[in-house]
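Hey,

The postdoc asked me to send both predictions to you directly instead of through the lab channel. I've kept everything plain text so nothing gets mangled by the mail client. Protein one:
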Amino acid sequence: MKAELVDVNETRRDLSIEVPSDVVDEAIGHAAAKLGKQARIPGFRPGKVPSNVIRQRFKPQIMQDVAEHLISKAVGDALVEKGVEPIATPDIKDLVLEEGKPLTFKASFDVVPSFDPGDLSTIEATEPSRAVEDEAVNQSLERIRERNARYEAVESGAVEAGHTVVLGLERRGTDKEGKQGDLDKHEQVNIELGAPSNPPGFDAEVIGMTPGSSKSFTITYPEDYTIPELAGGKVDYTVNLKEIKKRVVPALDDELAKDLGDFASLEELRTRVREDLEHEAMHAAERQVRQDVLKQLAARVPFPVPASLVEREIDRRLEDFARRLMDQRIDPRQANIDWNAFREGQRGPATEAVGSAIVLDEVAKRDQITVTDEDLDAELQRYAEQTGHNVASIRARLQKDGELGRLAAGLRREKAIAHVLSKASIKKG
């Protein structure tokens, strides 16, 4: 076998391979013989079909089997011979496979060259202040009041701004081309006046109505309305008012604190709120320092980040975002999202994330940071406690899916981050 390695750029390699014709012919013979034992062809007894018939009838399948076998072995042998390690499965191109001739093809792949990640003590970051101001505590308490608001029926009078109304509602839309939609009916719907999702002008039509009264009106949507399907169209409404409710926010006092749980007084609630905010501020400060340090690490990569790694990271981010949408019961395919624009918007952050990971791997290699069996067991135990599964089943599944090595690599990077932070200069803000 002949193999020639060419450096396309700092991270891309082309491996040109030629497998001798006698190896190719032998592989074709083996593939044909194996297929001949299984083939069922009218006029021939099983296992007695002549080789030339098998080769003629099943040539595409034979050549595919030979290509898969020889390419896999040839690439593996050539990579060992040349001492290179691709970061992903090589792309195969320019394949030529014919009986009686050498097999030739080119394998293209990305690599991450070794480099010196530099002096970690020169990394500097400023930790944001963890102080929690009284105003932040007051705002948090105010949000608690708002979340615990209740609705009381308005016994008499007319609808006013800020009320919540209970309506029987019928509506039929007409788009800007004049096409009328189906009638949409609701026996009872709650609408909070002033809500940003209300149609433009809807609140003004309902204000002043009294329980038991009905009204018909038309809402015309502006041409630049944020929902394209409604822009420039109109909707005819008929509503009858069944009930008026007003939102009542509780007083900020000891009674509210007691209603919320194990708080004897408002002061105890205030203390808990401050502790929670201080905890959040601590984690926010740690995240900010981590982000700043990772950004500086990414800048230390002395070559363009391999494109295949960036694309893989973008794919991961899109899958993660789509999963979060589904967790909110939103179909990603129906969401009004320009996925191409979203993908391109992730390219910069993905490139930076890949760059910092590359440097962390080099730091771990240089400074001999490893993941022990105890580290792996502890992570599996933590995951088991979160999911309710046992460690043995989790380990078996990860091994079966080939994910155990990826988990270990992630843990090694986390240890490398801790190592970098211990060497960096972190100033208090």
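Protein two:
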Amino acid sequence: MLFRSAGPIGALTVAAARMCGAAEIVAVDIASAPLAAARKMGADHAIDASADPDWAKRYEANKGTFDIAFEASGNERALRSAIAAVRARGTLVVLGMGGDMNVPMGMVVPKEIDLRGSFRFFEEFAWAVDCIASGRVDVLPILTDSIVATDADRAFALASDRSKAMKVHLTFA
């Protein structure tokens, strides 16, 4: 299973895939902090695409490697590399919302890829809450810090720095 973007959504999707029995999980991102979080959430391999620009070539051979890929960045280049790495008749789930993208149908159709979109407001949300509440998914590895709401400026500054933070929790006590 391939994950493009190991940000918070990607890392949580890694945890869900691990919980559901994925045999091998490969997370790809362009920053080390999200990749470290993806490993903590269950990824077997973490690839820094900025340090290894040829990473995709290893997985594109023979019409792709992965049965399922999740694209969580909303980046068109990431989408293209995920399409190339999915095997023929595999599934690509797009989670990222980066705006309109050009989908290379010349890559999707010949491989007969099942291309799906997924969002958070259907039954998955209740399932995710149940997984967290029951302890089947531990979200603490992506929690960077808990900061009291009176120090919200510092919390938002930290949360906006992707090199330092995944998720920042505001407390009101």
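Summary for protein two, as requested: The chain has seven helices and eight strands.

Thanks,
C.
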